[in-house]
Amino acid sequence: MDKAIQLEKLAKTYGRRRGLVDLTLDVERGEVFGYLGPNGAGKSTTIRLLLDLIRPSGGRATVLGLDPRGDAVELHRRIGYLAGDFTVDGRQTVRECLTFLAALRGGVPERRIDALAERLGLEPAPRIRSLSKGNRQKVGLVQAFMHQPELLILDEPTSGLDPLVQHVFLDLVREARADGRTVFMSSHVMSEVQAVADRVAIIREGRLVTVDTVAALRERAVRTVELHFDGPAPAEEFRRLPGVTEVEVDGSRLRCRIAGSPDALVKTAARYTVTGLLCEEPDLEELFFTYYRNGAGHDDRVAA
Fold first, then answer.
1. Where are the alpha helices (DSSP H) in the chain?
2. Which CATH number is 182's domain given?
3. d(CA 226, CA 228)
4. Whose CA is closest to 96, among 106, 84, 88?
5. 202 in a structural domain
6. Beta bridge partners of 151
7. Same domain, 158 and 64
8. Looking at the structure, do residues 33 and 49 belong to the same domain, yes or no?
9. Which of 50, 94, 125, 208 lies at 20 to 30 Å from 65 by C-alpha?
10. Could you give the C-alpha distances from 11 to 46, 109, 181, in angstroms and in order?
11. Per-residue pLDDT for the chain (304 aa), expressed as one digit of tens each?
């Protein structure tokens, strides 16, 4: 079966600025794929190329086995898209807007639209121009999900949403995956995608940095560990361990940070009497930013 998305050395330049540099990437059908990077990394450029909103300077993209340019009409029927700068006619009410967009889709049951709006806490009567950014984003989410598309392409989908609505959105993503549909979502916040993504790609300055499962990234992330002993904490032994940093001792309490496998730390601690142990969740946000610190100093100018 074709991949949901296949990119082969995809490139985009804007004059002297580089938007993407030889991006090669596959997204499997039925998976939730997180596409991570700060503003300006090239996330929106990638999405616009997938939808033929802009044309590549080089390379090739295939979406649902089709060519984004030559098969655009058929392809757009099968995609739900939320732009990072979602805008619609401000004179329409929410219901008028969604009814109009549903008609463009060939018709969507009204009960489906109402159910999505209710889950997201979106009132149908107000005019679009009177809505807050968060409520406009809810309109964008409803129109993207309402026709139950084969592929969802979502650019910064939780921008402006309050935490409760973000949880509803994540539930919608899980339901789409359970139905066998594919979700490709961009974000600049690691924690936003780690709850639902099967795999994550990190992009920096238009270049792909890494692609991996969330579980594998978690294994490489930094953990904070606190150990309590029945006597003075053996600080020096822990400072010599691979991956262990920031060792702090307060009497019988030892606190440190560890990157990667905790195996050596656990085996060292087992030589003593441990009376308490606390291990915090790995800091995936820090891992995410580590990729950017390691790439500091790149001079190419990159567009969003």
1. 43-50, 72-77, 94-104, 110-120, 133-145, 163-178, 190-194, 214-220, 235-239, 263-269, 284-294
2. 3.40.50.300
3. 7
4. 88
5. yes
6. 79, 182
7. yes
8. yes
9. 208
10. 9, 40, 27
11. 579 999 999 999 988 777 899 999 999 999 999 998 888 889 999 999 999 999 999 999 999 999 999 999 999 999 999 998 888 888 999 999 999 999 998 899 999 999 999 999 999 999 999 999 999 999 999 999 999 999 999 999 998 899 999 999 999 999 999 999 999 999 877 777 888 999 999 998 899 988 989 888 877 778 899 999 999 988 999 999 998 999 999 999 999 999 878 889 999 999 999 999 998 876 666 777 776 666 544 444 444 4
Phi and psi at residue 4, in whole multiples of 5°? Answer: -65, -40
- Range of the structural domain that residue 72 is part of: 5-78+149-217
79 token code pair = 């995609």
Helix (H, G, I), strand (E, B) or coil at 203: strand
- Which residue's structure tokens are 């295939």? 62
Q: What is the pLDDT of residue 301?
A: 41
* Domain final position from 217, 241, 272: 217
Q: Is residue 154 domain-shared with residue 70, that is, in the same domain?
A: yes
pLDDT confidence of residue 217: 80
Number of domains in the chain: 2
> What pLDDT score was predicted for residue 113?
96
User: Which distant-in-sequence residues (6+ apart) come within 8 Å of 30 by Cβ?
Assistant: 4, 177, 180, 181, 182
Mind spelling out the 3-state secondary structure of 102-163? HHHCCCCCHHHHHHHHHHHCCCCCCEHHHCCHHHHHHHHHHHHHCCCCCEEEEECCCCCCCH
- Distance CA(162)–CA(212), nearest Å, equals 28
**Which among 231, 195, 200, 205 has a CA at the least distance from the CA of 217?**
200
Q: Which one of 217, 246, 261 terminates a domain?
A: 217
Residue type, 59: G
- Can you read off the two tokens belonging to residue 235? 């600080």
